[in-house]
Amino acid sequence: MPNTIQKTKRVTNHIHVDAHSPLSEEFDRYLLNDLGFVWTQFDEPEEPVEDYFPRYHLTRKFYDPSEFKIMQNTLYDYLENSDNPFDGYAEFEALTVEQRLNEDEKPFNPNVEPSFRISPENWKKLHGAKGPDSFRESEIHLGMDAERSDPRLIECLTDMGFMVIFNTKELEGSKYRQIIFTMQGSPWEVIDNICQRTIKYIDEAGGAVNCDIIEERISTHWLSGPHVARPPIITAEHLEILK
Question: Is residue 221 part of a domain?
Fold first, then answer.
């Protein structure tokens, strides 16, 4: 299959802090005031969700790898030497893919079939990742306008096995509700394969509005403890190639 991914010309990095309970005032101030993090909250789910849903989500973006490395060491050392700063995890990432999709807003073509899925049977085998050594190597996030994108496309992506989450996004001064389709797993080659196939599917099927995709490769992570729930880790055995 041809590689349709447009790699970023300049390395971009993210650090995310995902907490399952409110941060302490001290840690909140440290992230926001000293380290330059911002709140990037997801919308509160309308229905009950798995315990790995991140109730509190903060992000710091970098365009200079050396600055990212300094911040990674600074925050990691702080977390390692603090007494229970928060309940959750921090992930330190390199963006390997960042691409706009269906920029001409091509209408949805229902005759285009996806080339992969995570079947309901395989999802039953997946559980929230727990344990000190259980953490994804990579993840993809496919975002689009929840109201303006074709509902048939949204249904197809859901049937393909993507997890779904929402947030509010601003574009050129206007806010809209964004639906985010995500898959996370190991090894990173599995997620990269899913990313390539997803890009090809959106390119051929259309139907997406204000659509972009990113792949985030995990360089390291920090856990407050092995009890912390994380999203299911997709591996090659869960991936069903359809064509």
Answer: yes
